[in-house]
DNA sequence: CTGAAAGCGCTAACAC
DNA sequence: GTGTTAGCGCTTTCAG
């Protein structure tokens, strides 16, 4: 027994290394060399059943698990994908994460979820961390304000990851420039917004406010663009446009809607930037003693799982979030060489429920 | 240059190892030894400003990031905590994960989220994985059916993790036995259920059905026990109890409620096992043309973020999920030695909204 | 068929 | 101050 070695290690690194079983101990117990143990456990080399059994028995008896770090060091590291989101408690992001996780797990990859709270600094730290850990695939999710800082930062991620043989996927955010080794997968926000605005227009609404703009944010800007395009296409004058830049989140939606109601702006419908904003708006409308859709129609965006349980059930745009996550890893892994620089657009569709009616006196 | 080495490596392991910068290259560029580079980067050893700067400059120029695996191997691995949940798309679990993540990130720990879909097999695989990766803290979240298989499995986790100097935290699930090196942190489900049942009782309800039992599941059993205790305490006969074992989830709640309504059981209130079940029940009640709380009162459990947006806003039991996650890591890390075997109970409280009224003709 | 030995990239004694 | 060196636990030639 190399007891002294273990004692020394134990003393040296605190309790962290206390008795983790190594391949050497398994080898000793099985009466073979470490090379043989490695071979049977890796299973990629023919080993006679007899020795094989002895080794397996020893490993089981000692409850041995290989040290992933040592393995990674020598080359055969575990394949790992990292998803970076603003927060997991947002239903939309959670679904994306679930999609990534499911697709990754299905391929035997490990999935790491990191959250940034929307802070670019934390995003950078996390990506750096993933480089250290040797993630083979990094997926950045969610719209961003696209400025020079963003472009520079992401260009750096892309090149660094690429140099290390890893891939970068941008979900719902733009490539920082041409010829950047990053894959982008996103929804056609403009088309979705155009469609749902059209739905409101068809119901007879002419005074529609867009609640939840976030100037500079690519996802919201696209939604606003779709809203504007639909209005214009219906022949409405530019004055008909009314976008409230209150940003996202239930609280923001609630506050902005309450203000709007207080000011008595003359509108008959609201297009919320996403379903959480819609939740806040719905609440504010109820608190003002008004009713949806009788007094005001409301539509959202994303079709989060509980949108059906709002009061009333929300008409919204379905963005298959889980599929977005799955697609991100599937595409990135399918054809790595070709994937770099590619741009995939996922379709969306309207889900009609009970939050839209014809405007009063129509 | 050791170009041949890199060529060989590149050829050997595909593109994965393509050109990752090592500490040696930084050392060469800075004209110092690897030890010096290590020293300045670790920052735990005095190094003259002049060399320090040279090294830092070289590292930056090469965009060097240390290999976390090599670091972990030699002892100073990154501290990592793993949370294992059924799914991230459940608002409750997502909040717990967020709490763990926040508390971990705040201490400079890396947080890994794994999902099992409720499959013990996948849970085991994931824990094994975490052992391989050297996680120092593993947090298992969510109620389980507590059978021999469970006890054996978790006892194994606890002992294996403990032997490797890691800790196991059980959130909302019981310790598999006495003297097991695991910390348990959970809500007082029985008290919460007792309280909310009492709320219904106080409103005048006498025929209350518990929707969402899951026999054997520790969390639900405790809730059922609280419900029964409250009923008994109010002097109601055992026949007043009515628990429907439909399990959790919106779909289950919807289906079970629809059936109940169809069978015309005489009840005036329903206590849903959790808020998702309540969502389904609310929907079924609405589809049956009945109204909450006028015709039937409904209460839930957990107070998920959108419970306020249900129709009507749901009266429920608030279980501070994020705090549960934070507490799990805080307690586990605060006093590691003492934490093993400890049992922490977190309090809950009722949140009154609009889904409860006095029963008809009361 | 199996063992010995050479590292993977890094840190931490231990020299000088 | 800084370089040299010995491993960490594992996989993988290369011999036998």
UniProtKB/TrEMBL annotation, chains A, B:
Q: Name one Pfam family in it.
A: LacI
Give the UniProt keywords, A-Z: DNA-binding, Transcription, Transcription regulation
GO MF term set: DNA binding
Q: Which domain of life is it from?
A: Bacteria
Under PROSITE patterns, the record lists: HTH_LACI_1, HTH_LACI_2
- Ranges for domain HTH lacI-type come to 21-75
User: Which Gene3D superfamilies would you find in this protein's record?
Assistant: 3.40.50.2300, lambda repressor-like DNA-binding domains
Query: Which SUPFAM superfamilies does the protein's record reference?
Result: lambda repressor-like DNA-binding domains, Periplasmic binding protein-like I
UniProt-recorded name of the protein: LacI family DNA-binding transcriptional regulator
Protein's organism: Streptomyces lonegramiae
Q: Species lineage, top-down?
A: Bacteria, Bacillati, Actinomycetota, Actinomycetes, Kitasatosporales
């Amino acid at each position: 027994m190399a007891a002294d070695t273990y004692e020394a290690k134990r003393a040296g690194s605190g309790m962290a290394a206390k008795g983790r079983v190594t391949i050497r101990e398994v080898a000793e117990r099985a009466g073979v060399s470490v090379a043989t143990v490695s071979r049977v456990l890796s299973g990629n080399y023919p080993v006679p059943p007899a020795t094989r059994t002895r080794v397996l028995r020893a490993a089981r008896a000692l409850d041995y698990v290989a040290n992933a770090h040592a393995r990674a060091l020598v080359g055969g590291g575990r394949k790992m994908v990292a998803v970076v989101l603003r927060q997991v408690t947002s239903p939309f992001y959670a679904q994306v994460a679930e999609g990534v996780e499911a697709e990754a797990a299905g391929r035997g990859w490990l999935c790491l979820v990191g959250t940034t709270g929307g802070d670019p600094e934390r995003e950078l730290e996390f990506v750096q961390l993933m480089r250290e850990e040797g993630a083979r695939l990094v997926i950045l999710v969610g719209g961003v304000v696209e400025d020079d800082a963003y472009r520079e930062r992401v260009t750096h991620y892309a090149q660094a990851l690429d140099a290390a043989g890893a891939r970068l996927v941008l979900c719902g955010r733009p490539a920082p420039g041409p010829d950047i080794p990053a894959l982008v997968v996103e929804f056609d926000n403009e088309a979705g917004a155009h469609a749902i605005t059209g739905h409101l227009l068809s119901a007879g609404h002419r005074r529609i406010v867009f609640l939840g703009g976030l100037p500079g944010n690519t996802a919201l800007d696209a939604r606003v663009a779709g809203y504007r395009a639909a209005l214009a296409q219906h022949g409405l004058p530019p004055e008909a446009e009314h976008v409230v830049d209150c940003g996202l989140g239930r609280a923001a939606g609630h506050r902005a809607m309450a203000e709007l109601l207080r000011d008595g702006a003359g509108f008959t419908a609201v297009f919320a930037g996403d379903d959480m904003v819609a939740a806040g708006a719905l609440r504010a409308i109820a608190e003002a003693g008004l009713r949806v859709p009788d007094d005001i129609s409301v539509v959202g965006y994303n079709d989060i799982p509980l949108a059906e349980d709002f009061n009333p059930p929300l008409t919204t745009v379905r963005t298959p979030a889980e599929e977005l996550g799955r697609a991100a890893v599937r595409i990135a892994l399918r054809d790595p060489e070709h994937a770099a620089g590619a741009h995939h657009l996922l379709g969306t569709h309207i889900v009609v429920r009970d939050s839209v009616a014809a405007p009063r006196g129509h």
